[in-house]
Fold this protein.
Amino acid sequence: MRSENVLEMHGVCKSFPGVRALHDVGFALRKGEIHALMGENGAGKSTLIKVMTGVYEKDAGRVEVDGKPVHFRSPQEAQETGIGTVYQEISLCPNLTVAENMFIGRGRYAIVRWKRMNAKAARLLDSLDIPVRPTQQLSSCSLAVQQMIAIARAIDMDCKILILDEPTSSLDEDEVKKLFALMRELKSRGVGIVFVTHFLDQVYEISDRITVLRNGELIGEYEAASLSQFELVSKMMGKALGDVAKIKRREPLASDAEAPVFEGKALSSDAGIRPFDFAIRKGEVNGFIGLLGSGRSESVRAIFAADKVKGGEVRMNGERVRIRAPLHAMKQGIGYLPEDRKGDGIIAELSVRDNIILALQVMEGFLRPISRKRAEAFAEEYVRSLNIKTPSTDTPIKSLSGGNQQKVILARWLLTHPDYLILDEPTRGIDVGTKVEIQKLVLKLAEDGVSVTFISSEIEEMLRTCSRLIVMKDRQIVGELSGTNLTQSDVMHVIARGEA
Amino acid sequence: MRSLNAGKPKDAISNSNLLFLIAAVIFVLMYGFAILRYPGSFLQFQTFFDLFSLNAPLIIITLGISIVMIGGGIDISVGAVTGLVTMCCAVLLESGTGSVWSAVLLALGIGVAFGLLQGYLISYLEIQPFIITLAGMFLANGLLTTIHKDPLNVTLPAFVSLRDFELVIPWLGTKNRLGNFIPLEIKPGAVIAAALIVILVVVMKWSRFGRNLYAVGGNSQSALMLGINVRRTKFYSYALCGLLSGIAGFVYIMTTGAGNVGNAAGFEMKAIAAAIIGGTMLTGGVGNLFGSPVGALTLLTINELIRAAGVNSNYQAIVSGFLLYVFIVLQSVVVWLRGRGDFRLALPSWLLPGRRTAEDRG
């Protein structure tokens, strides 16, 4: 008998300008299996899926469906070959009806036969127990139902391969159960399902096999039953089990008796994290740690009110304050360096100088412009002290390297003399030398009495700089680690088990 | 079949139909007010049909722009293209070489040429529609003045008879002040406009192109993922809009009988306003083509009311402007209330300071 793989990918490569998203990745999906695709941020999961579904064209490699080589140039071609996809961001049109969303883009006829379409949709919705009418507008359905409709669409196309990209991220527990029942039903019909999720427990609940990607490369393919959660986490993060050498870490400076600089109770935002308590003392460096999607960034964004705040009580230096917008947070002496440097941080066309004084200017108010002379003095001071490599302070920030751009943004916040600084992935995508400089700077700031919350995908970096680690999983805090002898394996155990 | 699916389902009305309904109600109220206030003129059928006949070109352009707007785009070249078509037809007809039919072909040809060119640049080269059609507007305006500067009356007999032709409907007329019965007269342009409304409504509701265009306007990324050829769909919408501008140009000269540099000047803005008042949203994906004539007639009725009141005609523009504000805010409120999302002005991405979406590689 020939191989029972419905989908095989060999040596797939895909690059974007400046980024190698996939390098020599292989993937095999069997008939009637649920195959989890795992990896951290930037591992290449989404890119691999988009290659499978024809959204991206691969640069090199082979894709075979049922043993026949295919080359998709558009999502239509992939659909016609029997690959159905349900994307993380629900890819349906809210302004059309439920039935239209199930059948649009598929018909061969130039004319839409509404009656037939609605009747067919009604039968399908009925058979899958989805409680909507085909004539309803999609926007009037809940997210979970929309997800089910997307799956119904894929099923109706007689797909051999169903790709579910983070289908559970917007569902509650009951809805997840329903979805899993549906997935098992499809599996028994012989459909191969690729399942992408950040929720580790769900992976083990439903998957047969697991493929792990990291940094655009294939790490391996494993039977779910023989791979422990701990091993999975370490493979995703790229730390071998033996690699748990002790790392020298700074002793916590602040004593527990001291009152916290920032104290939040039951903080929550509309980004979907569970309400959490959080406090940080003067001169403390702590960090949120967890896998991608665990809610690290959402937590600090809630602190800074970068997402819409839904509730909670905040005290700065013991006094109750109201933080409903980033400007409130800034006025309270909180600085926030966002994760997405290009989108949220730099203003590409402005000069280094203007980027540096931006936050200070906002705080002082636009009615009192910072004079050119003062701005120049500030800019020169920080270019020197942070060792920012730039031809002049007039240079547009976009022509600087990533590391230097990051330093400029750091300078922007340092200039406001914050009491509490939040750094979300300040070292991502910058060279090693600058990484070390930034880590040193964080420790120096702490010595000067600034409290810092530091987030990084690299555990060693967190261990080196933070005296307290708050561990997150599945959008809630599951544990806290502090002490002097923390190792990576401690952290991974907490993430895998979900307890400290 | 489940009982839920049986019988006539009571679905919430779609945004397209809701906004159309609002527009229709407002038009009826406004026309009703006009009848009460000035029964002498507005109560006559002729007044209503004149409104329709004389403004058929605007209604046709509004249809075109509504289609482009439903697809999430914009076309501000329509007025200038219409003007260019009138002048080209006039020159052709007066040159003594062209027949009426060749003028029709010329009109359609110019419209389609602009539509295809702009559609290609916008859909396949992905340039902002506002910029491309702004360029198209200047291009058409420049060509218009280059071809002929002075007003040009068409004297070709075949054309003059077409210009003066009027459909007479004897059973629907009004008695004039002297008590003589005057039958209703309708210009052929109005018939063309009415036919186009019906055809295009059908196209948008029952053709694959029409539904795909709604999908593209609703969420072009999703539409792509659903297997729709987004570029081709957008391309067709601009080509169709161009074709309608060509038709509008011919209808224009058929109504006035002359080529003139000022023909259809400013129509693009009136048409956009009419489309919005008719319930087509600038954000795309929402709109009912029946709303386009309703929007155009609402705008025109306001103007007629102001004229009848004998107020300075500047007020027409002022009131139209205010009405537009009201409608954009109204649409935003409606979508907000129904969408359960954050309130935001319902403006297209090219009018909003866009938040960049980082390339997703994870």
Q: What stands out?
A: Chain A has a mean pLDDT of 82. DSSP finds 17 helices and 20 strands in chain A. Chain A has two domains: 5-227, 260-497. The two ends of chain A are 49 Å apart (CA to CA).
